[in-house]
Design goal:
This protein is an alpha/beta fold. 37% of the residues lie in helices and 26% in strands. Strands 6-7-8-3-9-10 form a six-stranded mixed beta sheet, sandwiched between helices. The longest helix is centred in the last third of the chain and has 16 residues.
């Protein structure tokens, strides 16, 4: 479904991505492990059309994404939930969620259905829908960010560090919800530093270091890999 071949990206003389090749098949949950500065966010921003690759191919289904606008990529069904949530804190939870449905704004019945699905997944957001998003807890704000992405009706979802800054119990709940979204049919590419939690819900994983894929394999293979355990699990 989602295929990258030899994707490179530079910021001036700095090579942020170097010949990255990876794929996520339809219905998979694939994890992209990497420390801060490894290139995970740069890769997602390139896939979502916000940065332009210097070289390589990014295909989503039969569609080559190079040159397509971010709004077109969302319309294609590839939706990005960015690191740091990127909410509008002074706007209500409801308005933040509806921003995610902007590309489908002419389909009001569909938007209402999407909103009902988000509220079914996150009942607390319906309770707080009229409150400013910035007044919510960190975990609830992450729910808004994920809900906003789901309002875009993704076929594939790019999740960038959804556990960042969250308490362990909230992280557990968040990963359970991500697994549930995947089981419902959405392909997920999950960028994470929390290797143990991420690998436990994944089918496969890649390790990104200094803009390069240095390791790939199945969930059990990477959970038991000494290099991965030392760098990301602490064992």
């Amino acid at each position: 479904m989602l295929t990258l071949e030899n994707v490179s990206l530079s910021y001036g003389s700095f090579r942020a991505l170097d010949q990255v090749t990876l794929n996520a098949r339809e219905g998979e949950l694939v994890v992209l492990l990497g420390s801060n500065g490894a290139g995970k966010s740069s890769l997602f921003l390139t896939m979502s059309g916000l940065h332009r690759a210097a070289s390589g191919s990014i295909r989503f289904g039969a569609q080559e994404l190079a040159g397509r606008k971010p709004s077109q990529i969302v319309s294609d069904g590839l939706v990005h939930c960015p690191e740091g949530r990127k909410l509008f804190p002074g706007m209500s939870v409801l308005k933040n969620l509806l921003l995610g449905a902007y590309v489908h704004r002419r389909d009001q019945p569909g938007t209402r259905r999407s909103l009902e699905e988000v509220f079914a997944l996150f009942p607390i957001l319906e309770e707080k829908k009229d409150q400013p998003a910035g007044s919510l807890s960190g975990g609830q704000q992450q729910m808004v960010a994920l809900g906003r992405a789901l309002m875009g009706r993704p076929k594939a979802l790019l999740l960038d560090e959804p556990s960042l800054g969250l308490a362990p119990l909230v992280v557990k709940q968040m990963f359970e919800i991500i697994a549930r979204i995947n089981r419902a049919g959405t392909t997920v590419l999950l960028a994470e530093q929390n290797a143990y939690a991420a690998l436990n819900i994944a089918s496969r994983a890649y390790v990104l270091e200094q803009g390069k894929i240095v390791l790939e394999g199945g969930r059990e293979e990477l959970l038991n890999n000494a290099q991965v355990r030392k760098a990301y699990i602490g064992a």
